[in-house]
C-alpha cells in the first residue's frame, strides 16, 4: 500500500504568504492544512493530525508562542518550525523553550525551508503499526485508519457531532465509540431512531410528558433527553425528523432545556448530541426539508463513513472478524473461507454495506456444515453487481414463469422494507426503482 504523503499545518495571518507557501508545499508533495491564527489552528487539531506545523509568531487572537504552549499542554508531540518576519535572538530562544524544533526568519530561501522540513520530519517518532480494530470497528483502509485517529480527538471535545454515511456503514458503532472514549463514558448512552418512531409519538418520546397530557397518559414519563442527562444522546436518521420537531430540537441544542408535554416547567439537561444520517443534509437544507440553523448546530464536528465498496481492502479482515464472531456464537469450531468464496465477496458491491456482509457471513456459518465457506454458501443479491452468476433450474415438468417471478419480486420487496426499517425511499434505492414504481408494486402485491 502506498504511504500517504506527510501533512503540514501552515499557521500564518498573512493570507498571500499562506497561499504562496501552500502552492510550494503541494508541489513538494505535501498535503497542506491552513489557518489564519492560533485559535483556528487549535480548532483544526481537534479533528486532524498533521505531521508538522509551520508557525508564525505574531498573529491576532492567539500568537505563536501561546499556541506552542497550548499544544504542548495537550501532549501533542508534533514538530514545529517557527517562521516569522520579527526575528530576534530572544524570540528564537523562547520558541525553542516552548518546544519548537527549529526557527526560520523571513525572508528565507525555499531551499532552506526544504531542508528544515526534511530534517524535522526525520525526527518524528516511528509510527506504530496502524490498528486493524479499534473500539469494535474493523478496518485497515486509509479511510478507516483516519477514523481511528480522529475518534479519540472527537470524543474529548464537547461539541456536537454529525456522522454521515450510507445505511449499514457502522454509524451507531462509531457513535458508541465516541461516547466510550469521552469523559461521559460512565453516564447513559441513549439511542433514538428518528425514522423508526411515528412522528405523532416522537415528541413525547424525546421530551416526555406529564400525567393527563393526552388520552392514556396516566402517569409522568421522562423523555429520552432526560434519561440521557449527563451522557450522550444518539439521534439516528436525523434527516427524517419532522419539521415541527426540528424547531423544538433546535431549542434543546441551543439552550440545553425543554418542556415535557403537558408541563409548564422547563427542564435543563447536560447532554452531548451525536446525530447520524444517510441523507445529504446540505441538499435537504437547500430543498427546505431541513432547517439550516439546526444543521449548523448539529454539524460542529463531522465524520463520514465510506461505503464498503469504496474500501474493499477491508473485506477480508471483516470476513475473518465475522467468521470468528459467529462460529463462537453458534458454538462451532473455527470456520474458514475458500478463495473462490472470498473472491465472490470482493467482487460484490454490498448495497447494504458492512451490515449486509455480516448477515451473509452469519447465514453462511449457520448453514455450512463443513470447515470451509464455499461460494454456494453465500447469499448474494443480483442487484449487488457481483459478477457471480445467478442460476435458476427449470423443473422437468416446467413452471408458471409469471407466478415464479412474482414470488421472487414479492420476496425482494419484503426484504428491502425489512432492511430499511420500512423507509420506502431507501427501499426504492436498494431495488433500483423510483418511489412511484415501488408504491405500485407494493399495492400490486398487497404489501402497502
UniProtKB/TrEMBL annotation:
Classification via Pfam families: AAA_lid_14, HTH_8, Response_reg, Sigma54_activat
Subcellular location: Cytoplasm
SUPFAM superfamilies, per database record: CheY-like, Homeodomain-like, P-loop containing nucleoside triphosphate hydrolases
GO biological process per UniProt: phosphorelay signal transduction system; regulation of DNA-templated transcription
GO molecular function terms attached to this record: ATP binding; sequence-specific DNA binding
Boundaries of every Sigma-54 factor interaction domain copy: 137-366
Gene Ontology CC: one annotated term: cytoplasm
The protein's name: Sigma-54-dependent Fis family transcriptional regulator
Organism classification: Bacteria, Pseudomonadati, Thermodesulfobacteriota, Thermodesulfobacteria, Thermodesulfobacteriales
